[in-house]
Each structure stands twice: as C-alpha cells, then as structure tokens.
Amino acid sequence: MYDIGVFSLKTEVELSDLIGFVKLPIKDVKVESKAVVSGWGTMLNPYSPVSNVLQKLTLTIISYEKCQSMMPSFARVHKSHICTFVKKGKGSCSGDSGGPLVQDGFVIGVVSGGIRCAKGYPDVYTNVYKYLSYVKKAADL
C-alpha cells in the first residue's frame, strides 16, 4: 500500500553520474505546486510494452480533498499519499510503480498507484515526508 522501503548493501557502491544519493524532503508538499515523475512504464495501457526510453512528466500536486472527489468510490486515498493530476491521457502507468516523484531535486513521493493508466483520475504516490522517521531509523541516519 505504501511502496516505501530501505535496504542495506553488503558492499559499497561507487558513486558516478548515474549512481548517487537521493535528497529526502525537508518539508511537506505544497498543493498546486509542480513535481516531476519519471519511469520506464507502459505508455498506452497497462498491457502495452514498457518504454525503452526513460519518460518524464511534470504534474500538479492536488489536495487530498480534490483527489478523493475525483476518485471512484472504490478507490482509497490516505492522507499519507500525494495525489497529482494533469489531464486525461497523461500520468503514470504499469511499470512506473516504485519510481520517484521529484520536486526541486528532492524525492518527495514514490509511485504507488492510481486507476488504470491516465484515464482521467489522479495518480497516487507515497508521501516520503510522512515516512522520514522510518527511513532515517531504518537507514541509520
């Protein structure tokens, strides 16, 4: 449900242009602000092939209340989530789960779910800020 976790490596990783540390958020998200999601997920529907090219999309963060009102009655959104929306036809899809939602260089969210693929419903992310104490404790920070 939350798609967030921390793991330890047995050996050190050599940092490079492609491998580095993520910045954790220092404050909670602001409604109506912009953020960028990226991923290798499908682009047309959940059953189409994944992308060969890393895709990215700028999204608008919407309020919990707006998110709830846009979702079908069976969909559950929690206050520990971030919701985004741009327009029908734009959003995360199958294969993007676990990917980052980034704002000003900080990983503020983790792709967690949504209804189908960009069918006019908000995309749902785990709000990393809400789990900072867990992440810091698990990572021994």
From TrEMBL:
Which one GO biological process term can you cite for this protein?
Answer: proteolysis
* Taxonomy, superkingdom: Eukaryota
> Where does this polypeptide localize?
Secreted, Extracellular space
Q: Which InterPro entries does this entry report, sorted A to Z?
A: Peptidase_S1 (IPR050430), Peptidase_S1_PA (IPR009003), Peptidase_S1_PA_chymotrypsin (IPR043504), Trypsin_dom (IPR001254), TRYPSIN_SER (IPR033116)
Please give the chief subcellular localization of this protein. Answer: secreted
Query: Which UniProt keyword terms apply here?
Result: Disulfide bond, Hydrolase, Protease, Serine protease
GO MF annotations for this entry? Answer: serine-type endopeptidase activity
| Residue ranges constituting the Peptidase S1 domain according to the UniProt record | 1-140
Q: Which GO terms describe its cellular component?
A: extracellular region
What PANTHER family has UniProt attached to this entry?
FI18310P1-RELATED, POLYSERASE-RELATED
Question: What is the recorded name of this protein?
Answer: Peptidase S1 domain-containing protein
